[in-house]
Structure formats: C-alpha cells, structure tokens
Amino acid sequence: MHPAVQAVLTIVIGLGACIGYFWASNQLLDRVIFPARGANIARNIRRASMIRPWLFLFPAMFALGLYLAWPVLATLWLSLTDRDQGGAFVGLANYAQMSQDPKFWEAIRNNLLWLVVVPAASTAFGLLAAQLTDRIGWGNIAKSLIFMPMAISFVGASVIWKLVYDFRPVGQEQIGILNAIWTGLGGEPQTWLTMAPWNSFFLMAVLIWIQTGFAMVILSAALRGIPEETVEAAIVDGASPLQIFFRIKVPQIRSTIVVVWTTITLVVLKIFDIVLAMTNGQWETQVLANYMYDKMFRAFDWGVGSAAAMVIMLLVLPILVWNVVNVRRETR
Amino acid sequence: MDNIAGRKPALTWVVHLSVVVLVALWLLPTLGLLVSSFRTADQISNSGWWSAFSAQERQAPAIRLEGEEQQQGATYVIEGTLFPATDTTLTAWGTSSRAPQAYEPGQSVDLDDGWQLVVDDRGLFRLSAPQSFEGERLPRVFTTATTPPEFTLQNYGNVLSGSTSGAGVGQAFLNTLTVSIPATVIPILVAAFAAYALAWMEFPGRALLVAAVVGLLVVPLQLALIPLLQLHNDIGIGKGYLGVWLAHTGFGLPLAIYLLRNYMVGLPKDIIENARVDGATDFQVFVKIVLPLSFPALASFAIFQFLWTWNDLLVALVFLGTDDDRLVLTARLVNLMGSRGGQWEILATSAFVSIAVPLMVFFAMQKYLVRGLLAGSVK
C-alpha cells in the first residue's frame, strides 16, 4: 500500500476510532450500565459522573504511560543490564564503563558549556530585541524576521550555517561569509568547525540564532505587561532609559526570564541534530544526546546508551521538579 | 512609554539602527542559502552569494578548443565559441596557466607550427594553420570574463524530479508529509477529551494528574527510544509509519493536554453550567460548546505539533529506520551533507525544499504560534 494512502487511512481510522470510542463508551455508561431512569436514577447518575472523567482520560493516560512514563523506568532498567549477556543485571557496570570513556567526559564538558552559553545568550539577545522592537513602527516586521528561525528545523539551520562557516584554501575566493569577512579584515581563512575548543561556540551560535526569537516573543509580552505607572514614575524621578530598563523593567519580569531560561535549558539538554549534522561529535564537539545516539544506534551498546540517557534525565530532573512544584502551588 | 525615546531623536536613530543590524544578522544566513539555491554550481563555487547580484569578472577554468575543421584556400580553420550559452564578455585570455591574461580580445596570436588563434570579446574563436589539424592536440584557452547576474530554477527541477541521482528529495518530501499530517491530527482529539476532563470535571486525583502531565512535559524523549523500539518489534509494528505516528502522538500529548487544559479552564463558567442545567451531558457540552470555543488553542497546538513533526530528525531515524526510500527530509539532508558536502547547489536547494513548508505555515499562522508559546511556557 502506498504510504500516502496509508496516511489518509490512518487519519480516518484514527479519528474514527477516537470519536467512536468516546461516543460509544459514554452511551454505554448512560444507557446500559447506569441508566438515568428507573428506581435508582439518582444513584446511577452519581455513579456515572464518577466514572465519566476516566472515560475521557483513559486514551491519553494510556498513551502517556506507555510512551513516556514506562520508558523512563525501562531505560533505567536497561542501563543496569547488559545486552550481550542476555540482559543480565550488571549493577552500575555500564555507568563505570561510561566514566572510563574520555568521549563521555568531553560530552559532559561541552554540555555544561552549552548550558551556560546558549540560554544566557538567547535570553540576552531576546531581551534586547524585545525592548528595541517594542518602540519602533516597523517593530512587528522586525520581530517576525527574528522569530522566523523558530520554524526552521535544526538540520535545515545546520545547512544554513554550514554555508556561513564554509572554508576555501588561501588563494581561492571564499564563499562562506564568515571567512570572507575574516579574510577581508586581513586574516587567514579558517576551518571554523574543526578548531577546538572554539568550534563548539560556532555550533552554539546556530541554537542561539534559533532560540532568540522564542525568548523575544515571551519577553516582549512580559515587557508590555509592566504597569506604565512604574515607568512613568521613574521618568518623573529623572531616571535614564538604561536605568529604567535595568532597574525598573527587568526586575518586574524576572519570573518570565526564569521561564525562558529554563525552557531553553531543556532544549539545550536534548540538543542532538545540530551536532550530528555539522560535526557528528568530531573535533571535540560531542554532546550527551549525540553520544547516546552513537552508543545506542551505531555501537548498539544499549547499556551504555541508556546510562547516557539517564544522565540527561538526571540533568532535567531539577527543572521537572521545580515545574511540578510550581503548578501544584498554582492549582491549589 | 514610547515618548522616552521620542524626546531624544539621536536615541531613536540608535534604536532603529540597532534593530536593522539585529534583523540583518538574523536574516543573512538564511538569505545566503536562498540566493545560493538559485545559482549554478559553477557560480556558487566561484564567488560568494553576496556577489550574485552584480556582474562578476573572474577567471574560468581552461577550455580545450574543439570543432570541425574547414579548409579555406590553403589554410585549415576551426571556428567556434567558448561560451555557448551565457551572455559573457571576455576581458582577457591566454594559452598557458602561467599567463592566463596575456592577450586582449581580438588580438591575433601566433602559436607553434604556424598556428594562429584569435578570440574576440564574445568568446568566438578562430584557429587557423597551414596544415590539417587531423590527429593534433588543440590548445587550451584560459579566459577572464565578466558574466551578468544570473539565476536559475534548474536546481529545484533537478532536486525535485530526482534526476540528480541519489538525491531523492522529492520522495523524502512525500515521506515527511506522510509522517507529519497524521502525527498532527491524531493527538489533538485524544488530548482535547483529556484536557476537558482535567479542566471541567470533578474527580479525586485531578490535581495530581495535572502535575504528572507537567512533569512528563519535560521528559527527554531520548529515554523512550530503546524501550519503545523493543515494544514495537514485540507487537509486530516494527519500523514503519505506524510506529512513527504512535511515537509522535505519545510525545506530543503532554504539551497538547497542557495547552488545551490551560485554555479550557479560562472559558466562561456560565456557559458551561447553563448548558448542564439545561440537561446537556458532558459529552454534549464538550462537543458542542468547549471544542468550538477552544479553536485558538487547538490551532496553536496543531501548528506546534506540525512544525515539530516536520522538523524532527531523531524520532524519524529511530522509528522509521534509515532505508533509502523511507528517509524524511531532515534525514535526507544529513545524508546529503555527508555525501555531497561540497555540492552546495544540491544542498542549498534541498534545504530550502524542506524549510519552505514550515516557513509558509509560520508566516500564515504566526498569530496562533505566538499565542501558543505564551500559553505553553510553564510559568
């Protein structure tokens, strides 16, 4: 069967099954199991409305459990077993083996560097762009253009930036804009992507380029939400624009800055496509997610691969807990 | 607030200028690739994309003369043109790599054996000799020429029709479409029902479930790969479209539920309670009132999920496999970067084919995207 036909069929069957399930299960509950008539009408209605939420929730909860919650535990288990020994329990052997691997420590080092640089730079650029575009007439167009990379895939962005970093030997005309500018300033052409440790920063530039738009949109909304009286009062008191920005505005949107920062941090922890497409972890640019992919799907070492995945999970955990605590506080 | 800058014209200019610089920085990389995708391989490798808009003078690689010889009286003549197609102006030429600009257009030059060569500024050449050229090696000509700006759609034709062997971008485009449409549509309905229950139905454990969804929102999908691949193999799905659709559905659900629930909680309470008083069941309230009112949130999530599934690489690599006829655009691009890293005309064009759809969605539905971002970032 042609995949396109299969896709259309899947949509029809998938949607049909969803609608069918919800309709039929509600009918079954109301008409057959606890009918809203006869002697026990009140009790039946009460019982039906106790069960109904779970009818609504079941498909989603089932999918979430099977596709997200259970795999976390399964991966934890895999990281403690050895595939070559038929899945025997080996304790922390995989973690020990991983800690002997210099590539793993390189990945950790790079990931930490990414964690510091990318959220900071994206948030800073985003804040700058938000503040500047909010006060000019064509700000919305400018915003749109800065926001645009959000729609581009990490791989597409890698192609775009690989052209920027392109290298031609001395004597040939440079077709990468970075080397063109560099040689124009009198430098020797450089192979930017192989010069450790700076090449990691050239990869980070790609993600900063993508994430700045996100930061800008969120922060711009927050800046607009600042009560005007506070700014006006500062003007009356003779504050300079810079003082207004750093002393009045930034403190008032601090919680939004934290949100933006953590959201980008999550993206950074999972960063994989950019490194795979641009250097594949060579020249000391390895990161955790690509290291994990290497181990799982190139070396087929599921134990160490799962151990690397657990390290990523461990790094995500503080943010997860913090988010959950915040939501619990809000819904209470 | 605007009048802070308004009072100081100098500052206003600084703001305008900074934004121009910022926008240029953010736009130039993409623009470079877009321009490159409309240039020929030759142009791309000889000059930067920024010079594509001006006429360029450059040295072309050596061209070996060829043509039918004709006898004109006592002399044998070969005539032809060095630049068959393009509108090129020759500025200098030569016959040796050591002096590629030795002669002017129209200058008649004596070579060995009594041969004479003339090349004019249009690239027309005339090679003459007293004896036949039969069996002789004809000379090479080095040219320096000015070519006008030239753009072509040929790259797109090549890449999409598949005549560029092994590129297979047209197929990859269809594969990506096949992955992303069902993977966008299916989670919406499943999530909408769950979100309604979490927003408007009373039951024990509701707050706990909301917290669980928020927690799952940030679980890295890297952890799910191996266990789910094993599961798919065990239940007979293996690697294929069904597996990708299911995986994307599962991974997309937390955000879908979170976004939709946040939106539904904000719907006016009166409408829903009035409907209930009038005897509507929860199912009817959901289908007839909540679902239509939630359209903006549904649209927001649909855009997110579509962009995410279209741009995804990891899930497709793992659950669809790396068979050549099943590669999605992103995977195809990664392959091309390895195998044709130097062929920018193919790479740039393929990249733009893959970027075009999300960009169109982005510019058409930006409003909903922004709304979704504002609602979706966990506060």
UniProtKB/TrEMBL annotation, chain A:
InterPro entries assigned: ABC_transporter_permease, MetI-like, MetI-like_sf
Endpoints of the signal sequence: none
Pfam families: BPD_transp_1
Gene Ontology biological-process entries: transmembrane transport
Top-rank taxon, per record: Bacteria
Membrane topology recorded in Swiss-Prot or TrEMBL: Multi-pass membrane protein
GO cellular component, one term: plasma membrane
Localization of this protein: Cell membrane
TM ranges: 6-24, 54-78, 112-133, 145-164, 201-223, 257-279, 299-325
Sequence similarity: Belongs to the binding-protein-dependent transport system permease family.
Protein name: Maltose ABC transporter membrane protein /trehalose ABC transporter membrane protein /sucrose ABC transporter membrane protein
Organism of this sequence: Salipiger marinus
UniProtKB/TrEMBL annotation, chain B:
GO CC annotation: plasma membrane
Pfam families the record matches: BPD_transp_1 (PF00528)
Residue span(s) of domain ABC transmembrane type-1: 173-365
Family as reported in the entry's similarity comment: Belongs to the binding-protein-dependent transport system permease family.
BP GO annotations: transmembrane transport
Name under which the protein is recorded: Maltose ABC transporter membrane protein/trehalose ABC transporter membrane protein/sucrose ABC transporter membrane protein
CDD domains found in the cross-reference section: TM_PBP2 (cd06261)
InterPro entries linked: MetI-like (IPR000515), MetI-like_sf (IPR035906)
Domain of life: Bacteria
Subcellular location: Cell membrane
Membrane topology per record: Multi-pass membrane protein
Residue intervals passing through the bilayer: 12-35, 179-200, 207-229, 241-260, 285-308, 346-365
Organism per entry: Salipiger marinus
Keyword vocabulary terms for this entry: Cell membrane, Membrane, Transmembrane, Transmembrane helix, Transport
